């Protein structure tokens, strides 16, 4: 048994995601006061117990994809994964978030209307 499963954190850690890509749908994004007294944006996902404390990089990725208004993020799909990042000059695992583009049904690609009134084939 993996002993780390006995003491699950309220928040995702990079170690939870090493070698995995987890698809998730954003349920909410809320500012929370952490144990150290700092206030951070935490993103929660439908059907998942753990939230993601958003660092500046992940916030900017989501803001670039879905806008700076976090109230617009619920319902958006993302993929969570770990990758090597530089932290204080040392390579370590960090969590990254990848927005998944949703297709808007109103923007379906349609074939252009062909003009069949001419006798010229093209």
Describe the structure.
It contains two helices and five strands. The C terminus is likely disordered. Strand 4 and strand 5 form a beta hairpin. It has a five-stranded antiparallel sheet with strand order 3-2-1-4-5. By secondary structure, the chain is mainly β. It has one domain: OB fold (Dihydrolipoamide Acetyltransferase, E2P).
Determine the N-to-C terminus distance. Answer: 68 Å
The amount of beta strand, in percent, is 35-45%
Fraction of residues in H or I helices: 10-25%
Q: What is the fold named in CATH at topology level?
A: OB fold (Dihydrolipoamide Acetyltransferase, E2P)
CATH C-level class: Mainly Beta
Strand order of the largest sheet: 3-2-1-4-5
């Amino acid at each position: 048994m993996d002993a780390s499963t006995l003491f699950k954190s309220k928040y995702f850690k990079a170690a939870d995601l090493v070698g995995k890509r987890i698809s998730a749908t954003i349920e909410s994004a809320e500012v929370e006061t952490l144990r150290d007294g700092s206030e951070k944006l935490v993103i929660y996902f439908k059907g998942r117990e753990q939230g993601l404390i958003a660092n500046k990089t992940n916030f900017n990725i989501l803001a670039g994809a879905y806008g700076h208004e976090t109230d617009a993020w619920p319902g958006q799909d993302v993929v969570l994964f770990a990758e090597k990042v530089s932290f204080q000059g040392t390579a370590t695992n960090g969590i990254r978030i990848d927005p998944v583009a949703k297709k808007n049904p109103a923007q379906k690609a349609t074939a252009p209307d062909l003009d069949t009134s001419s006798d010229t084939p093209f």
